[in-house]
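Async update (no meeting this week)

Hi team, since we skipped the sync, here's where things stand on the single-chain job. The sequence we agreed to prioritize is pasted below, unchanged from the tracker. I ran it this morning and attached the output directly underneath so nobody has to dig for it. Comments welcome in thread, and please keep replies under the output.
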Amino acid sequence: MSSFTRPQFPGDLTGGAMAMAFAIPEAVVYGAMVFAPFGLEYIPQGVIAGVIAVFCANVFTKLPGSVRNQVNMPDPMLSLMMVAFSANLAASHPGAHLDTILTLLFFIVLLCGFFQTLFGLFKVGVLAKYIPYPVSAGLFNGMAILLLISQIRPMLGLDFDTPIWAFEHIKFLTFVTGSVTILTVAFAPKLRIRIPAPLLGMVAGAAMYYLFVLIGQGEHLGETLGTIPLTVPMPVYAPDFWELLSSSTLGKVLIEVTPMALGLATMASLKSLVVSVTADNLLRERSDSNWELISQGFGNITSSLFGGLAVAGDQTATTEMFQFGGSTLYARLFAGLVALAVVLFLGPVLSPVPRVVLAGILVIVALQGVNRWSLTLLPKLRERQDRGQVVSDLVVVVLVACVFVFIDILVAISIGVLISIIFFVVRMSKDIVRREYNASRIRSNVYRPDKDIIYLEQNGDKIQVYELEGSLFFGTADKVANTIEDSLSENIDTVIVDLGHVADVDSTGAQILLRIRDRCLAKDKKLLLSSLDLIRDNEVLSTALSVSNRTPHPDQSYVFKTIDDALARAEDWLLDKAFGINREQHVLSLNETDLLQDYSSQEIAVLAAYLEQHEHDQGEVILHQGEAGDRLCILIRGRVDVVIDLPGQGGEKKLLSLCAGTIFGEMAIIDRKPRAANVVANTTVTAMHLRDEALSRLRKEYPELDHRLSMGIASELSKRLRIANRVITEHKS
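Output:
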């Protein structure tokens, strides 16, 4: 779907405004946090930098293919990194003017955007998915701990250079004000008030602060943000960047700041790609992760030019905007314009906000940033099952978090990348053949007559299935190709490669799949592939196999949506070869069906008088889900699909197929409950219907025949249950 859809008023306006009611208070907090180390007098400039970043990140970041409803804003992780970078820059440039430090700091944000753009152009955005979860958990836990530590002094009303243990300088009322802010933000969601929690916390904390001032306790309180002037956003750093890029010291500067910019770009990209999944799920769309990275890169480049912080996608703000009706790019654009209005007109409104209120909001951000999954690892240490994996995960989490807190943020990210590479190499070195089997053990979910089942049990080894998992690249794909090629004996007719558990396929992997296909064709074997969704979504694979959503291609007859569909086709080919290609178009006599195969000709003649023959066109719904069951059907020609409607999703799911010689509709006759599924004609179908009233007459007039019929139905159900149990057992093994 195109990103450039028509606006949907008033939802886009309301959604954009409510997203900003959440985003701007946090942007103010992060801006103040980044600039506070320069001196309290620079906090107002930090506030402006945070809000300007929101403006740039949502007005200048819309490209076709990117997420159209994702809200971007400053992020706690990125802001902490900027605090660390400013300290490093100040240490490496002693005596430098603050303007020089700020120019270098925003130049890092510029390079961050440049690297994100390169990530998208060279399509390396998908690499973010290879970062192991323990690594990202350690990084976010380290962020949470560092944020909590950094807010101890502001919460106690202490200056930045005052020791924490200087109890005589602690301002108790400041702590109370911060605590009120924390409690308000924490419990706001339970109040069911449609006001974003950070904004409500800011109002409650400020109210408590000025209540203390009103009763004459102002001297026991901390400072406010200070005077925040009205500002017209301009690309004020563009001349400084140009001067830096044209200076003779550029090489030295790049050596110093490039690692910082790469680390910032890595974390910003990871956060934005995670949020883009949430945004896509809300709209039930699929965006292009590489275009999203390019879009994010533009946002950070423009933010740096205007003197704004580094930005990334934010999950809560994105969800807020959607819940209030914002679903197009215009909602995001309006959100950016709201941030611009704050910079232009509402700076003085923010000036009286107490600094401790911002500290309280940061405490909540830190607590919410603690990775819940990593906390669940501790109880698992008592369990013997997978204890080695649990210990390994816990060691990685603790190592990365400790390096983040006690050594350096960039070192922690570097260690995380190194661990990711090690995990990747180990995973890639594993055999990706998850399981291999043939159709004599596990068959498709197509219920066939007894003679077909017996034939498949005896000859199913002519169909060989390989289930793959992991990533298909040169090393793993070549190993799979050798395994399959070595198994192409004379006995095998069809090879099925199931890609349903494959995470990614690169160009080499796609070419090796083509090599497998060519080898199969050379030996007069068929190669079938599943799953179609992976193949369509993977640009390299879909191009190699010429599979698309719009254009049919001869090879598409060998690509299937699920492994069950592929198995069904392979079984049909095997049965066609044995019994003829038109076997399903032949109308069976009643004694050729499984239910009635042991009946005498006299019994068949009696029963036929109670049956009605019906013809059904392909696609016709023969039995409807939810209707009262008034008949069972004996299928004597063609094939039907049993399909259920998915509640609340507007879709449907095929459960199984039934071939000529089987029965359907019997469950509602037995338990008298509404039908649990639809039965749809897959081909032209001929079926004999036994209605409820006819069955009642049969029961009265021929009770012995009715009893035998009931036992036959029970036998059919038992046979299906045994088949299902065997398949489940085989899958578990």
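Quick observations from my side:
Confidence is low (pLDDT under 50) at residues 547-556.
Residues 585-732 form a domain with the Jelly Rolls fold (CATH 2.60.120.10).
Reply here if anything looks off.
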